[in-house]
Design a protein that fits this description.
The protein is of the alpha/beta class. It is built from 15 helices and twelve strands. The strands form two sheets. A nine-stranded mixed sheet has the order 1-2-6-5-4-3-7-8-9, sandwiched between helices. A three-stranded antiparallel sheet has the order 10-12-11. The longest helix has 17 residues.
Length: 360
Amino acid sequence: MSKPIDLLDAERQACLALSHVAGLGPVLLQRLLEGFGSARAALEAPLDQWQAIVQSSVKKPTCADLEWSREQMRRMRLLGGDILVRSEEAYPQALAEIYDPPSALHSLGTFDWERPAVAIVGTRHPSPYGLRAARELAFGLARAGLCVVSGMALGIDAVAHRGALEAGGTTVAVLGSGVDQPYPRSNVNLYRSILRQGGIVSERPVGAVPDRGSFPRRNRIISGLSRGVVVVEAAARSGALITARCAAEQGREVFAVPGEIFRASSAGCHALLKDGAKLVEGVEDILEELNAWSESAPAKEPPTSGIAGRVLALLDREPLHIDALVGRDLSSAEVAAALLELELTGWVAQYSGQRFARRA
């Protein structure tokens, strides 16, 4: 059951105040939350108990930190957004499972955190081949019902977002700045389009401009929100490779698109392939690998509510064409997204001719 709104707001403000303390990063903050049970309890804890858990010279939040957190809440509400903390149900479950999740996730737009997501990342200086590959993969994944996650940077990131938007799908941009600070500024129109068809998230406070360290830190969020990361053109030293490394550490799938052997921007992808990344020649390679991954995942109870539950209730052991599921107050996009979710979680099998059946 969700917390009453006043308690939830108090927990959000406490978590923000903790995140504003110098030297208290995601890992230490997570240790405090686990030790005291909540951000509010951590704020109210005696100093000796605080120091026993933190085991460093990090100080407790001051009145100024609390005032700053209240102002952050006010500014996010004016923007029409939300601040999600780990203790609430709305926080994305996939992100909550990583080693160092953001203590507070700022979000603008519309989100369906239950929808499976795949990240597409790559160089800011792509070749025409890289641009085409990123767009077609994003378009195909969005058409299949997946959410496309990226960082809204120039180059591959921006094209991935646009490919998902062109397919009428959902895309999420993870920023290294505050959610109200589109970066780079040349992508402001893309930023607005993403807000209409998806969302913008960041762990940075409202009004924050990007700094040198903010982009490597945000890469763990890109991979953490996703079931897999696809790298399309990346140099040997590249931010996209940091995202791929985060994905591997988080237990996500890592995919790489092969490139021309004479291009420096192919070196990163080829290194990933040598290290065991899945080679991608088309969107089917990604979907097949995710299906195989989901079949080996622990079994869960079948969904009984929401669109996925409704679609599953319409299916039997005999394959049924997708068109037979559309029109019962369900759009084709909703049915496609639900079928993909059910397929990835092992409850539905797909057969030739866009026919689907319930698994035993």
